[in-house]
Design goal:
The complex is a heterodimer. Chain A has one domain. Chain A is 74% helix and 0% strand. Chain A has 14 helices and no strands. In chain A, α3 packs across α7. Chain A is elongated, with a radius of gyration of 21 Å. By secondary structure, chain B is α/β, with parallel strands linked by helices. Chain B has 2 domains: 213 residues, Rossmann fold; 82 residues, Alpha-Beta Plaits, CATH 3.30.70. Chain B has 12 helices and 14 strands. In chain B, strands 6-7-8-3-9-10 form a 6-stranded mixed β-sheet, sandwiched between helices. A 4-stranded antiparallel β-sheet of chain B has the order 2-1-4-5, with helices on one face. The radius of gyration of chain B is 24 Å and the shape is elongated. The chains are: A mainly alpha, B alpha/beta. At the A-B interface, α1, α2 and α6 of A face α2 and α3 of B.
Chain lengths: 285, 326
């Protein structure tokens, strides 16, 4: 080993940012191929939200009061923003399970022994989950339209606003996959990642404005619901879709839902990405 | 000059278990070191420290001339690791797996593709190249895992129990591959529980127990430490045991041991094949019919037993658990 070649090899790669992005895309591609070979996962991932749409629409539809209205149509239009948001957060479980599975099978060891960007394994996984979330959202939106959901049912909107709402939903979903990544790095088995990835999502998505009008909640619960990051995105979607049931609460996130949704999502990404990547660096299978 | 793999005083503690308790290693370029020890001895931990997967508590290591603790990323560019578990994506095809690894070694798409095809051919996986690896047999997966470690032909390779769990045929196949690799000049550190494997592949062997290297040397040197050769005779008739024993006493340089039920006699000797021929002539001239006779040299099993006081297969349950769960 001559000193000359050593210096050459010790020198870092040309551009860490582009290397990181490139490595992430390689890993994302791997995860997308994987997903396409396990179609049953995608199908089950779709059945659940579709079931929620149908159940909530037809079972709860007639008996829910949104503002002063008890019309089933109003509830349907109110509901969809909530279902969309809940669906994107469920990506947490699949990303957590995927990463725990990689740990379990020794793939993380292989990746960690390669001269690749440190965050790329997790980033690649979250990119792939984002693609899956987007596909799920498209199918779900079609189903929602089929059961009678309409944008602009409570005022006027436009294509730009509707797209912006879907953008916020994707960002929320992306943020939650980083929570999943941290869970996946922290538990021992994929099974544990799936259940621990899902359990806490129920209180988070139900103590919110997703399925009921928060103004009917007891005050302390209402405060939690109104400051819940998840509620901000739901409220933002209702505003952008011009759907009924928008909260009139004075709470800041309800008054500025688009900003609140953006800030919350970015904050979640920054915090959980940092923690998950730190965990990855020191991971032991 | 330190070798291609060099470690000094590596210490790693998990809770109150000292997985590594001051390990020193020095592997000259182009040679194979066999790290031999039972489960839980610290072999995997040593490999993980040397391949940047684990930070040692104390000590230093240099791999391919690069400081492992100071420049882990540069070390990763110069090593290949093939682990205890065949770490390939089971839903990707063999080809896709190798291409991905090539890309992550920072190769461009085209060379990565060409290299993958080359390795699939070389490792006899070309027919199965486009099937998801979950359809592969254990041996095929292990070969693919090894191929993945060789994508950039790294100057230094680490293999953690490469043949554990393989049937004899596949083990033989993998040994051939490893030998070819080493003949090309690669430096290799190989861990194994199989004494036969270390004997077969390694230029030098380091015996590890309880996180320490307790002996190093070539397989011959280690065997010599356990004592010399001996003659083993199996007589045909039980009533000839006594007579045979008297003859052997004349040739031996120690006590003859007799295993009655097997009609087997063993005596330590010095003098090699020439002496063996004399023993045979003598037995023959006395009309003692023999079923089997041979000059036995100590096996690495004997070496291991005499060094550690326990046989290699015996698992130290507690430290074993620590090593796999850590």
């Amino acid at each position: 080993m001559s000193a000359v070649t050593d210096t050459a090899r010790v020198a870092p790669a040309a551009n860490p940012v582009s290397q990181s992005l490139r490595d992430s895309m390689v890993v994302a591609q791997r995860n997308l191929i994987r997903m396409s070979r396990i179609p049953e996962m995608i199908i089950y991932g779709l059945i659940q939200p579709i079931m929620f749409v149908v159940l909530f629409t037809y079972v709860f539809g007639g008996s829910m009061q949104i503002g002063s209205s008890t019309s089933a149509t109003d509830y349907k239009n109110f509901l969809m923003a909530g279902i969309f948001a809940q669906t994107v957060t469920f990506a947490t479980a699949s990303s957590g399970a995927g990463i725990a599975d990689d740990m379990h099978k020794g793939l993380i060891d292989r990746f960690r022994s390669l001269p690749m960007a440190r965050g790329a394994v997790l980033t690649g996984r979250t990119f792939a989950d984002l693609v899956q979330t987007a596909l799920t959202l498209i199918v779900l939106a079609v189903v929602a339209v089929l059961v009678g959901w309409r944008v602009g049912s409570d005022g006027s909107t436009n294509a730009g606003k509707v797209l912006a709402a879907f953008g916020l939903l994707l960002l929320l979903g992306y943020a939650f996959t980083w929570i999943g990544a941290l869970i996946g790095m922290s538990v021992c088995t994929p099974e544990a990642a799936t259940s621990s990835g899902l359990i806490w999502l129920f209180p988070v998505t139900f103590i919110s404005n997703a399925f009921v009008d928060t103004s009917h909640m007891t005050p302390w619960l209402r405060h939690i619901a109104e400051w819940n990051p998840f509620s901000a995105t739901v409220q933002a979607c209702r505003v952008l879709f011009a759907n009924p049931g928008q909260s009139t609460s004075a709470a800041w996130p309800m008054q500025h839902p688009v900003w609140a949704s953006l800030i919350y999502s970015v904050l979640i990404i920054v915090v959980f990405r940092t923690l998950a990547v730190r965990k990855y660096r020191s991971a032991t299978a | 000059m330190p070798g291609a793999i060099y470690a000094e005083g590596l210490v790693k503690t998990f809770g109150d278990v000292k997985a590594l308790d001051g390990v020193d290693l020095d592997v000259p370029e182009g040679t194979v070191l066999g790290l031999l020890g039972p489960n839980g001895a610290g072999k995997t931990t040593a490999v993980r420290c040397l391949t940047t997967l684990l930070q040692p508590d104390r000590g230093s290591a240099v791999v391919a001339g690069i400081d492992v603790l100071k420049h882990p990323d540069a070390v990763r560019r110069s090593i290949g690791l093939s682990g205890q578990f065949a770490a390939v994506d089971e839903y990707l095809t063999g080809r896709e797996n190798l291409q991905m690894v090539g890309r992550l070694y920072q190769m461009k798409a085209k060379p990565a593709k060409a290299r993958a095809a080359e390795l699939l051919e070389q490792f006899d996986l070309a027919d199965a190249a486009d099937r998801p690896t979950k359809t592969y047999s254990g041996g095929m997966r292990r070969r693919l895992d090894l191929a993945a470690a060789l994508v950039v032909s790294p100057p230094v390779m680490f293999m953690d129990e490469p043949t554990t769990g393989l049937d004899p045929r596949n083990r033989q196949l993998l040994w051939e591959v490893i030998k070819k690799l080493v003949s090309g000049g690669t430096t290799l550190l190989l861990t194994t529980q199989y004494l036969e494997e270390a004997d077969h592949l390694a230029h030098e062997i380091a015996v590890v127990d309880h996180g320490r290297v307790i002996a190093t040397g070539t397989s011959d040197q280690l065997k010599a430490r356990t004592g010399g050769e001996r003659v083993e005779v199996v007589v045909h008739e039980r009533e000839h045991i006594q007579a045979a024993s008297e003859i052997l006493r004349g040739f031996g340089k120690g006590d003859t041991t007799v295993e009655d039920h097997m009609r087997k006699l063993t005596v330590p000797v010095s003098g090699g094949a020439k002496l063996l021929a004399e023993v045979i002539r003598e037995l023959d001239s006395r009309g003692i019919e023999i079923d089997d006779i041979g000059l036995r040299r100590p096996t690495l099993d004997d070496v291991f037993l005499s060094l550690t006081g326990h046989v290699a297969e015996a698992k130290d349950e507690e430290s074993d658990k620590k090593e796999t769960t850590k």
